[in-house]
Amino acid sequence: MQQLFDIYFVSSNKHKYQEVKKILNTFGIEIGFFKTELEEIQSNSLKDIAKKKAKDAFSKCKKPLIIEDDGLFIDSLSGFPGPYSSYVFQTIGNVGILNLLKNNRKAKFESIITFCDKKNLQSFNAKISGTISKSLKGKGWGYDPIFTPINSSKTFAELKNKNQLSHRYKALKKFSKWYLDRQESNDL
Ligand code: IMP
C-alpha cells in the first residue's frame, strides 16, 4: 500500500528529491515524492517562477507541498544563466558554460523553496557563493561537476558533504524552522 505523508516534494527531478529527503530527515521531517512535470514560466525572478510552480503543483497534488526552483548566477556573465539555468543546461550544458568563461569564474547558486497548501504560499531562499571550475570534476547531476562552493577545492560532485552546506540545505533549513514552528502551534 502506498505510504501517506503530511507533506510532498513535487518535481520531475529525482536527484533533487533524494537530496531534499535526506536534508529534511536531519530536521525530523518525512517527505513524500509527487513526481510530475511542472509549468515553468519565463521570468527574471526566481521567486515568481517558484510561486507559479507551487500553485501548479498544488492543483495537481492537492496536498501540502514544497517545490524548489534554482538558478546558477555567473558574475562575468552578468548573472546569466540565473532563472534560465534549466534551459541553458539542456542546450549548451556544462561544457558550453566552461567555454564561455575566462579569468573571473565567480558564481552563486540560489535555491528557492516554496511551500503551498490551502491557505499558505510561502518562499524561503538561500544562496551559496563559489566558482566555476576550469574543467568537469567528479560525477554528479546538473551543474555539480562545475560548481565549487566557497572554502572548498572540490566541486559539489566531488564533495561528500554537499547536503550539509548547499544552497538547498540552507533554504530547507529556513523552511524547516518555519514549518515545525507552525506545526507546533497547530497553524497548518
Ligand atoms: P530548476 O529550474 O530549479 O530545475 O534548476 C535549474 C537548473 O539548475 C537545472 O538544470 C538543475 O539541474 C540545476 N540544478 C539545480 N540545483 C542543482 C544542484 O544542486 N546541483 C547541480 N545542478 C543543479
Give a description of the structure.
By secondary structure, the chain is an alpha/beta fold. The chain has five helices and seven strands, in the order βαβαββααβββα. The chain has helices at residues 14-26, 46-61, 85-91, 93-100, 167-184; strands spanning 8-11, 32-35, 65-74, 81-82, 106-116, 121-132, 147-149. A hairpin with a 4-residue loop joins β5 and β6 (121-132). α1 (14-26) crosses α5. The longest helix is centred in the last third of the chain and has 18 residues, at 167-184. Residues 13, 68-70, 72, 85-86, 89, 141-144, 156, 166, 168 line the site of inosinic acid (IMP). Inosinic acid (IMP) is lined by residues 13, 68-70, 72, 85-86, 89, 141-144, 156, 166, 168.
**What is the domain tally?**
1
Helical/strand content category: alpha/beta
- Total E-strand runs: 7
What name does the CATH topology carry?
Answer: Maf protein
Query: For the residues shown, what is the average pLDDT?
Result: 96
Q: What ligands are attached or bound here?
A: inosinic acid
Number of helices: 5
Helix fraction by DSSP (H/I, runs of at least 4): 25-40%
> Could you name the CATH class?
Alpha Beta
